[in-house]
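Work Package 4 report. The design task specified in the project plan requires that, given a folded chain encoded as structure tokens, an amino acid be chosen for each position. We show below one input record used in the internal validation round.
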């Protein structure tokens, strides 16, 4: 089964690399600069689950080599329209599109471009980033990729993909409840992004600060309420996993959005807000004052006095006190 991975950044490079490492027929659709870098250094993965350097097959837009059975889309939401144009020549009769984007708005855009029946649901749980030489640095233990039919249940094509992707060091699984998985991913991602972007620190720093644990847990409660209002209340096993993740003292965990802010790059904050405001979940989210939601969003985008906001700056503000205080 031929797999085209769109993007070879932290997510696409990691999961595509693990599939290739297991012997899969994998190609990466990347920009010319990334293709040149990978040709020189190889696809380098540094991970708690084992380091590897792979000779990656790369393709660039406009130079695809035919159709693919599966297209694994691993781009940021703000580059999706460009990616749709790039992958169109690789989509044929039996192609399945598996997106690993955050939020939910990408599903309709991909269905509009390629048809409802081609698009599966997908999500991943991983903390990873690119190093200065383009190496993929997998920072924490979780490395899970799930995919499945958006309507639930199983299907022959999902089982065929699962079989083709088996043997990877990453935890790759077919899900009969992919929308549930995606809403749980949203809850933990919105919590980690909201906390680390607002507070400008990792979870270890936040938890060590007055009111830090209380604020994190209250934000997580709000995010799970949004998922519940959408009809997907998080399951007990997920709640246990997520609570341990965000309350581990000394943790270096930070959201990729915060790393983007540290680099001065573009972020996906609008994706999170769109999820809360355009779906049935909006009722739960609107219980928060607009002034508070606007303040949280503004803090993810601005600097104070020309410098990046620090943990101390935000602890001194009223926002975190509001989250950490009584309901």
């Amino acid at each position: 089964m031929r797999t085209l991975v769109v993007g070879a950044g932290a997510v696409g490079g990691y999961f595509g690399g693990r599939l290739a490492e297991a012997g899969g027929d994998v190609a990466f659709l990347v920009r010319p600069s990334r293709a040149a870098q990978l040709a020189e250094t190889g696809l380098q993965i540094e991970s708690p689950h084992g380091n590897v350097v792979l000779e990656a097959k790369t393709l660039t837009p406009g130079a695809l080599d035919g159709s693919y059975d599966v297209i694994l889309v691993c781009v940021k939401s703000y580059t999706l329209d460009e990616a749709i144009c790039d992958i169109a020549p690789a989509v044929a009769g039996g192609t399945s599109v598996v997106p690993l984007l955050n939020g939910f708005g990408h599903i309709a855009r991909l269905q509009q471009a390629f048809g409802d029946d081609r698009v599966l649901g997908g999500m991943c749980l991983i903390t990873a980033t690119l190093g200065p030489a383009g190496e993929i640095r997998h920072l924490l233990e979780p490395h899970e990729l799930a995919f499945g039919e958006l309507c639930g249940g199983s299907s022959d094509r999902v089982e065929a993909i699962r079989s083709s992707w088996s043997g990877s060091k990453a935890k790759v699984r077919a899900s009969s409840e992919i929308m549930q998985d995606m809403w749980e991913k949203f809850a933990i991602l919105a919590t980690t992004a909201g906390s680390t972007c607002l507070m400008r620190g990792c979870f270890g720093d936040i938890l060590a600060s007055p009111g830090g644990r209380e604020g994190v847990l209250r934000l997580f409660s709000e995010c799970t309420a949004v998922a519940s209002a959408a009809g997907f209340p998080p399951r007990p096993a997920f709640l246990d996993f997520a609570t341990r993740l965000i309350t581990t003292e000394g943790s270096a965990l930070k959201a990729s959005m915060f790393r983007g802010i540290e680099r001065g790059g573009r972020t996906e904050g609008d994706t999170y807000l769109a999820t809360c405001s355009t779906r049935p979940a909006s009722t739960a989210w609107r219980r928060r004052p607009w002034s508070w939601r606007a303040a949280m969003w503004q803090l993810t985008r601005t600097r104070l006095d020309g410098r990046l906001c620090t943990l101390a700056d935000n602890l001194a503000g009223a926002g975190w006190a509001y989250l950490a205080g009584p309901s």
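Residues 294-308, 314-320 have pLDDT under 50 and may be disordered. Validation will be extended to a larger panel in the next phase.
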